[in-house]
């Protein structure tokens, strides 16, 4: 801060010296203006004297030109007066310019002081801003490092989870493959068993049909045999008393099997009926 303030003080001193130099130049300009005005007054006086001499010569040389010479003299005097007034005006303007220069120099000195103060304030603000930016940069760097560590940890965790997921997926695929193979084998066993049961059922059905046909044939043969035996017994019963008694008993049995009709009212076989061919 002191090293920065010293150049600013030197700059302010230089500005003050520059203002003093401008003020000295303004004073010199004022003196030059005053000298110029004095010269112009002297020249005007010389011109007036010359005009007067010329007028006297012209008065002496020609009376007709006296009025004109007097007019010229008056004009010269008026011009001289105007020139003197102009010189005085220029001197006044030079004095005013000097005052303006001095005021401008004072204003520039004040402006230099104000710029110096502003420069010091700007320097302090810049130093504070630089310190704040350095602190912010350190904080952002620390946050970036922490974020980098967190991201690295997340990446490592994600990679571990991905590896574990791949391993679990492979295990699930292996289990699914084994289960599918097991289901295929079980399904094949069920299909084979179903085919075997269907073949066995078909064989049993064929066997049952064969047995039923055989039983029907046996039943038909047995029925024919019974009919033949009954006809034979009926024929015998017509010729002997025992045959008649057997006929009555057989009739009672058959009447119970067929409809149990009352043999006293309507016997199954009429005692007077004869068999065909008897």
Description:
The chain is an all-alpha fold and 278 residues long. The protein folds into two domains: 2-138; 203-278, no CATH class. Helices cover 90% and strands 0% of the residues. It is built from three helices and no strands. Helix 1 packs antiparallel against helix 2 (66-237) and helix 2 runs antiparallel to helix 3 (241-258). The longest helix has 172 residues, at 66-237. It is rod-shaped. The N and C termini lie far apart (165 Å).
Number of helices: 3
Q: What does the main sheet amount to?
A: none
- Overall pLDDT, averaged? 79
Classify the secondary structure makeup into a structural class.
mainly alpha
Q: Return residue spans where pLDDT drops below 50 for at least 5 consecutive residues.
A: 273-278
CA-based gyration radius: 80 Å
Number of strands: 0
Question: Can you tell me the overall shape?
Answer: rod-shaped
Summarize the amount of helix as a percent range: over 70%
Q: What pattern of helices and strands is seen along the backbone?
A: HHH
Number of domains: 2
Terminus-to-terminus distance: 165 Å
Strand content: under 5%
